[in-house]
Amino acid sequence: MISTKSSPNIVVIGAGIIGLQTAVTLLQSGYHVTVFAEFWPGDEDDGYTSPWNAPTPEIAQDPSSVWWSSVVGNFIVLPSKELPEGVHCGVSFTSFAVNVPQHLRWLCSRIKSLGGRSIRGRLSVAEGAERGLLHAVEEGTLSRLIGQNDLGAVINATGLGARKLVPDEKVFPTRGQTVLVRGEAKGVTTRVGKGEGEIGYVIPRPGGGTSILGGTKEAGIWDTKVDPETTQKILKNCKMLAPELLDRDGHFEVLSDQVGLRPSRKDGPRVEIDVLVGGVAVVHSYGHSGAG
Fold it and tell me: Are the beta carbons of 235 and 215 closer than 8 angstroms?
């Protein structure tokens, strides 16, 4: 559905997977939508982690007790004889893998085709300012930046930026290091160890000829420098997960390694509404960590 002149004006702040998909959904429902963001698909920034999005594996003593076992297809608890050495339990199920950079670009093109606007910019607030985002909406700063008045709602999908913008001290980074290798793995495979943050995963990028290997899960760590030792550990741990990607010498062809900061939040994601004077609603949708 293309928006009509009588539809409310909505601004989505943030062009990660949450913000872009929200914008598409609103446009399809007939609203006028403007996406305002500092970083966009194709940009490289440690705080813009959507292109490197990866699942967060979980551990359970009884694998059939994981919460999503009833909502995926063909969920099977693997017999012990099919498990690699050192693995105490495992499951198999039918799902799908998304080439995230390609999907983000598609969302941007979809927004354009539905009549949405995209504006690159930064909404700054003073350090430690109370009601930073709400004040910026009330006093008209956001309206001036996008050149549009009569806002009906603002969607706050700023991820890690919400820590300063809202401000919300419950927001914190969860550091993740990954490795991009050549070749598409035959499926998504994840592994969880007993140690804190000890995870491993292989995610193919369909149609891209590459796969993502991971990873780390380090809560509260802001360091975005790639650790060469961690890269080597990831490559070693993932050999058993995707042997089909190894060359004759038993090595992956590494294309890049990178660090991203997942936008996590104490007590979980914040999804709620603030209604301002004049009736403008600020809808918060951030803190989803690796589940964005």
Answer: no
